[in-house]
Structures are given as structure tokens and as C-alpha cells.
């Protein structure tokens, strides 16, 4: 009879690795698009999204890869290296909430941009976004310092005149809202797991039940962690402008210019 632990290992290998690969590719493409397209670089909301993607990328590569190694290949470096154990806890405790914070700031910035109050709209600018980002980064890194010490502590008028920018802004609202939906949906499975663990914490469990819990944890955690790499695919589904930019950026280097050179007719001189 196949054990539950073996099923969890197979799930981590054959489902977790492709999921991790898709997440890493999506985050890298997001970082490339948001950092190279001038329209996105000049908007506070997309700057927050860029910061969120960077934080998600760091968290995804650390948390999900180690989860796959632990469950799928029985390789847990945190058991043999106290330094890596502290670093991993620091990364998870810092960049997971950092990504969620920047995602929330992108949503709040859309509230400011679409507000009828001119004072509120003035707060939405790239300079303020830079200042807020620095403060948020400092706060979350300072919050996670104990993990390194103690191992046991686990402008609207111009936009209105431009139809293209206005359309892109509406699509940006869709992108931000769908990303929030992804966050909620990704948190549900892990929330169910935590509820189950709390409700059965006082019950004695045999080895088979413990292995079932491991399979449950592996399934919910890998699905939940995809939230940190799935925003690219959400943005593709939400915004036609984003899809167009992705196509232009990805195939720009692959375009071959067909230059037609005029053929000169050489006259043949008869002897």
C-alpha cells in the first residue's frame, strides 16, 4: 500500500517543481515589464506592483524551493545549518508581508487616483511612492531582525486628456483587484489546514494520520505559495494592454528586419 508520505513526496516533485518554475518565470517577466516600460515606471500603482513582485520572487524562491526539497527529496538544510535556518526564517518573515503590503498600497493608490477629491489625488505620485517604499522596507526588515538573533522565534488632468493612459489606468484597476482575489483564494487552502490542525491538536495521531497531515500541508502550502508567483498570469488575463506590451518586449529581440536591397543590373559587355 502506497504511504501518504510517499504521495506527498510525489506531489512535491511532479506538481511543486512545475508550479515553482511557472512562478519564477512569471515573476521575472513581471519585473522586466514593469521596470522597462516607461508608462508603468511613471505610475505609483505599478511601482508598488513592481516592489510586490520583487518581494514575492524572493519569498517564492526561498520558501517554495525549500518546501519541495524537504518533502520531495527529504533534504532539510535547516536541520544541519543554524545559519540557514535563521536566514530562511528572516526571508519568509520579511518578504511575504512585504509583498502583501505593496499589493495593498497599489490598491490604496488606485483609490487615491480615482477619488473625486483633488487633495487625495495629489498624494498619488511617484515621489511619494518612493518615500513610502523606503519606510515600508525598513519597517519589515526591522520587524524580522529577531529571527536572525533568536532561532526559536519563528496627476489626473493629463490622464483625462489621454485616452490611452485612461484606458491603461482602468486596466490597472482590474490588475490590482484580480491580484487581491488571487491573494484571498491562495490563502483559503492554508487557512483550512491551520483550522484543521488546531481542531485536532489535542488528538493522538498514529503514523498514518501524521503522513496524511503532511500530504495535506504539502498540497495547501504549495498552492498558497503560488500566490507569490502567479500575479504575472493574472495581469495577462486582466489587461489587454499588458498582454500587448509583453508580446512587444518578448519578441522585440527576435524581430528580423527585412531590408530589401535594390539589385543592380550589371551590363554584360560583348567582346
Overview of the structural elements:
- This protein has 271 residues and is mainly alpha-helical.
- The chain has a single domain, classed as Up-down Bundle (Rhopdopsin 7-helix transmembrane proteins), CATH 1.20.1070.
- It has helices at residues 4-36, 38-41, 44-73, 82-113, 118-122, 126-143, 145-149, 157-161, 163-199, 207-225, 231-238, 240-252.
- Helix 3 runs antiparallel to helix 4.
- It starts with a helix and ends in a 19-residue tail after the last helix.
Q: How much of the polypeptide forms β-strand, as a percent range?
A: under 5%
Measured between the Cα atoms of the first and last residue, the distance is 93 Å
Kindly provide the radius of gyration, computed on alpha-carbon positions and rounded to a whole number of angstroms: 24 Å
Shape descriptor:
globular
The CATH homologous superfamily corresponds to Rhodopsin 7-helix transmembrane proteins
**How much is the average pLDDT?**
75
Output the CATH class name: Mainly Alpha
CATH architecture: Up-down Bundle
What helical percentage do the residues reach?
Answer: over 70%
Amino acid at each position: 500500500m502506497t504511504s501518504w508520505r510517499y504521495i506527498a513526496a510525489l506531489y512535491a516533485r511532479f506538481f511543486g517543481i512545475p508550479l515553482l518554475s511557472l512562478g519564477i518565470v512569471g515573476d521575472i517577466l513581471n519585473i522586466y515589464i514593469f521596470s522597462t516600460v516607461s508608462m508603468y515606471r511613471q505610475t505609483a500603482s505599478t511601482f508598488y506592483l513592481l516592489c510586490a513582485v520583487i518581494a514575492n520572487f524572493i519569498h517564492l524562491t526561498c520558501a517554495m524551493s525549500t518546501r519541495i526539497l524537504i518533502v520531495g527529496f527529504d533534504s532539510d538544510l535547516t536541520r544541519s545549518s543554524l545559519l540557514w535556518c535563521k536566514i530562511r526564517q528572516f526571508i519568509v518573515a520579511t518578504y511575504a508581508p512585504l509583498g502583501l503590503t505593496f499589493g495593498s498600497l497599489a490598491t490604496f493608490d488606485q483609490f487615491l487616483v480615482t477619488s473625486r477629491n483633488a487633495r487625495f489625488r495629489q498624494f498619488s505620485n511617484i515621489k511619494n511612492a518612493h518615500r513610502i517604499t523606503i519606510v515600508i522596507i525598513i519597517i519589515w526588515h526591522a520587524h524580522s531582525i529577531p529571527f536572525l538573533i533568536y532561532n526559536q522565534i519563528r496627476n489626473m488632468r493629463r490622464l483625462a486628456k489621454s485616452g490611452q493612459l485612461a484606458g491603461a489606468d482602468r486596466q490597472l484597476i482590474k490588475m490590482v483587484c484580480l491580484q487581491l482575489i488571487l491573494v484571498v483564494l491562495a490563502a483559503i487552502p492554508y487557512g483550512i489546514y491551520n483550522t484543521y490542525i488546531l481542531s485536532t491538536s489535542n488528538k493522538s495521531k498514529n503514523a498514518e494520520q501524521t503522513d496524511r497531515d503532511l500530504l495535506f500541508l504539502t498540497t495547501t502550502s504549495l498552492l498558497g505559495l503560488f500566490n507569490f508567483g502567479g500575479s504575472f498570469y493574472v495581469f495577462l488575463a486582466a489587461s489587454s494592454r499588458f498582454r500587448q506590451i509583453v508580446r512587444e518586449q518578448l519578441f522585440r529581440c527576435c524581430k528580423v528586419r527585412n531590408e530589401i536591397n535594390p539589385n543592380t543590373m550589371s551590363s554584360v559587355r560583348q567582346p
